[in-house]
Structure formats: structure tokens, C-alpha cells
Amino acid sequence: MRSTRVWKQLIGVDDRTVIEGVEFEDDDDVVVVRVRPRRPKKRRCGRCERSAPGYDNGAGRRRWRGLDLGTVKVVLEADAPRVDCPEHGVTVLAVPWARHDAGFTRDFEDQTAWLATHASKSALTKLLRIAWVTVGRVIARVVAERGEGVDPLEGLARIGIDEISHRRGHNYLTVVVDHDSGRLVWTRAGRNKKTMEAFFDDLGERRCAQIRLVSADAADWIGDVVADRCTNAVRCMDPFHVVQWVTDALDEVRRDVWNSARRAGQKAVAKELKGARYALWKNPEDLTERQQGKLADIAKTNQRLYRAYLLKEQLRQVFHQDTAEDAIALLDRWLAWASRSQLPAFVKLARSIRKHKTRIHAALIHGLSNARVESLNQKLRLIMRRAFGFRSVEALIGLAMLAHGGLCPPLPGRVTTA
Fold it and tell me: Residue 390: which residues within 8 A CB-CB, separation 6 or more?
């Protein structure tokens, strides 16, 4: 095997690249591989890769960091002439071993992107010897290239919509998930009607008409836009948020009872109520022996609070019935009980649930919830912790799409299997 073929395999370039020579620089402990593109019939723009006439020789020789050989850094060195693109003007000639405006080879960037979704921040930066902010720029280039010709919004029929906080100061991302594939298909900074309108603008009128089911919480900025843009879609109220409402109502009753006991000088009762918070919140099957005892004491000594607990449990059971008919019947009985419970928090909650009753019924009939979206949000929170050093939300969005949007490249040199 000729040495040039060996070096092509080692540095990850194909037959479009010619190796002119290899040397080792002792001062920097780096292998320098001098390369050039194989003489093309036409020169191409580095941005769009369309043919373009030559302009000049550029700023001279240029280097791209490649994958290490063992513990030694590798750089590719080549001339960087410029072309005059009809669309982008004067720009650097396209090279086969690297993306435009990158200081790294394509294999190096693909490995960086893969590691960003599988390894910790410290492990990645130490292994590749690059700064974390550089990783953000690499991810943006990889996602842009791998997203070309791929339309994640095509074929959507059942979607889930939610928001997630990504920084202090009420900074949010709106996320859209495909219920059928489980993929993240769209995300954008913001949490308002304008953000939601941007998603449906990207979706287009034809594909909006193809959406059959949409799951979301009760936020008007989601519901109003969905109702306006997806007239064929059935809107489903996420059961998780309904259970969250009833848990909040239970905690409001607990605080009222606790404050009443404290004002009456019943310090021991107030202390017990404060310590019973998790016993009231948790599902019965998850209670510890001590928490079961606290709950039994409440049942004996505080009928008002125990009634609120039973209301919470019955509403939770609505979403665990075997059939939609049973669930809807149980919900109707719950609404009647809550309305006459003499617990202001639950009377108010019953009114809210009646307001969204049609959407809750739809969730029960179609068996749709935002559980898949909430699961993805948990994964996104892990990504956000790692992405804290990125300087732009676009880099964070890129990492999210890379990890959960199907855009992650395979490791260089590995054969992918279906």
C-alpha cells in the first residue's frame, strides 16, 4: 500500500484530496500534512459549492485541525485561493476536507458533535483540546449541513407543544415534538403567540391541515394559535398539568389549615401539617410507612384536609381508567363532588376544569398526553447544563436538535447499521 493511501486513511480524507507531503514540527509537537484539492474541472464557492471564476490567491497558506494521531495533534495545510461567486461574492474556494469558514476538518467536527451528545463538557474539551465555546460553533455548522434537504416538519400528524426555561430571567424555549417518532422537530427561543405563529408559518398551510391531534397545557398563547391555524386538529389537554393543578389546590388547602392552626396557637398541629406535605402529595403506592401514619392521623383529626387529599386522588384516578367512557364518567362525578366540597380551592379548580372539559375528554378518548414531551424536556435540561458556556441560544438549539432531532452524525470511520 502506498504511503499516500495510508495517510489518507489516517487523516480521514478521500480521493478528492491530494497529499503533497508530511512533516513533523518539533516546536509545536504537531504533524503537518500538506494537501491540495485534486484539480477540479471547475472551482466552487465555499458557501454554496456552485462553480465560480477564480479571484485571487487569498491570504496564503491556511491550516485546519484534524483528528489526533494517538497523542499528537494533526493539521492539514493548503493554499486558500478565493473565487468570485455570483451569489456570495468573493469567498474562499470550497475544499473537500472541511466545511466553509471552519478551522477544523469535517471528521474532527463530526466527532466533536457526536461527543457533545454523549460525553460531559469536561471530558470533551480535555479529549479534543478545544474550548467549550468553540464546540458551540462547531455544532452550528454540523447541524446546518446535516439539516440541508431534511424537513423534520414533513408528515406530522400528532404533535406535542410545551415550553422549557433555559436561563435565568424568564428565558424560554418553545419545543414541538412528534408523538409518532418521538423526535424533537422544532424549537425556538420565546414563549408567546409570536413564537407559536413562527412554527405554523414554517409548517405551512398544507401541512397545518394534516395535523390531527395537538397536546399541550392550558396556555392561551398555544391554544389560541392552534385553534386558528390548525382547524382540523383536535386539541388535547395534557393530563399531567391537570394533576398538577389538583396538587396545587391540595397544597393551598394544606396551607390554609396550617395557618388556621398556627393562628389558633395549635403549634403541635401546625408542625405536623407542615411535615405532612409529601405524604399528601405522593401517590399512595409510593408512601413510606411513616408517611402512611401521617396520612392516617390526618384522616382522623382533619376531615377538611383529608377530603382535599381524596379529591386529589380521585382526579388522578380519572387518567388511569381502562376505558375513556369510565374516565369521563369518573371525571363528571369528581366535578360534582369538588363543586360541593366547600373547599374554595377545589370549587375554583372545578370551574377551570369545566372550561377545558372538551380538551380533557379528547385526551382521554385519544390517549394522548405530553408525557413524551416532558420526558424530552428532562433530557433537554441536562443539555442546558452542559450548554451554559455557549454564547448564543442558537448553539443550544443546535445541540438539542443534534441530540434529539435525528441530526447527530456517526463517529468518523465507523460503519453505521440500520
Answer: 132, 133, 135, 136, 396, 399
Q: Are 376 and 177 in contact (CB under 8 A)?
A: yes
Q: Are 406 and 183 in contact (CB under 8 A)?
A: yes
Distance CA 212, CA 233 (A): 4
Domain extents in the chain: 1-103, 105-235+369-413, 239-366
Q: What would the mean pLDDT of 71-87 be, rounded to a whole number?
A: 92
pLDDT of res. 385: 75
Query: What 3-state DSSP class applies to 415?
Result: coil
Cβ contact 374:160 at 8 Å: no
Q: Which residue has the cell 397545518?
A: 208
Tally Cβ neighbours within 10 Å of residue 379.
13
Helix (H), strand (E) at residue 153: none
- pTM assigned to the model: 0.80
Which has more pLDDT, 280 or 130? 130
CATH class of the domain whose range is 105-235+369-413 = alpha beta
How many CB atoms are closer than 10 A to CB 159?
Answer: 26
Question: How many C-beta atoms surround the C-beta of residue 343 within 10 A?
Answer: 21
Q: What is residue 161's DSSP assignment?
A: E
Alpha-carbon dihedral 365, 368, 369, 374, rounded to 10 degrees: 170
Confidence (pLDDT) at 41: 61
pLDDT tens-digit map of 159-207: 999 998 877 667 889 999 999 999 999 999 999 999 999 999 999 999 9
Taking only the tens place, the pLDDT of each residue in 112-152 is 999 998 888 888 999 999 998 899 889 989 998 888 878 89
**Chain CA centroid to CA 333, Å:** 38
DSSP string, 43-104: -BBTTT--B--EEE-TTSEEEEEEEEETTEEEEEEEE--EEEETTTEEEEBP-TTS-TT-SB
Region 25-35: mean pLDDT is: 89
What span, in angstroms and rounded, lies between the C-alpha atoms of 349 and 277? 20
Q: How far is CA 131 from the centre of its chain?
A: 23
**In angstroms, what CA-CA distances link 371 with 94, 211, 326, 367?**
45, 19, 21, 11
